[in-house]
Amino acid sequence: MPFRRVVVGVDxxxxxxxAARWVATQxxxxxxxVLVHVLPEPEAPPFVRPYLPALLxxxxxxxxxxxxxxxxxAELTGVDRTRIELLAGAPADGLALAAxxxxxxxxxxxxxxxxxxxxxxxxxxxxxxxxxxRVPVLVVPSASAAAAPLKIVAALDGGAAGRSVxxxxxxxxxxxEARVEALHVLGxxxxxxxxx
Length: 196
Known about the structure:
The chain is an alpha/beta fold. The chain is about 35% helix and about 20% strand.
């Protein structure tokens, strides 16, 4: 299963830029790359929302700089095969929407060494994206973005998207001679049943 179209989340961090470059040059050198930057909308109470202008209108002065930055990333990934999307809203929702609209085979995110989120405090960006899409999500560690992966961990839940996740993991591993490990977490109910 070669990748035809890959969505890459770009927040202009070093990790996301390295992931975009790695995806375009190493993982999917022939695929269309869709660079997506999502401007997060601030939370506002429901009674205030009707009176607020749309976020893209209020940041119209910085939108050209964002487009320019994304065009600069596109030059690294191949302008002729790169599309740019600038969206507003929750980043996970925007990435899932972009992947659905362009029928992406994969969503890629860069990961820094230090996690900013956790399951206890609202999940990581990858977990939030996974909750909103059936498209496989690949997290590219920034430390290894320049190198070929040695191990691919495929998180499987037994749902309908499990097959596409396994196929994507196998595609990445096979093209890079990496090892695949499948991970399935058993819920506490099943552990209790097994103990009984």
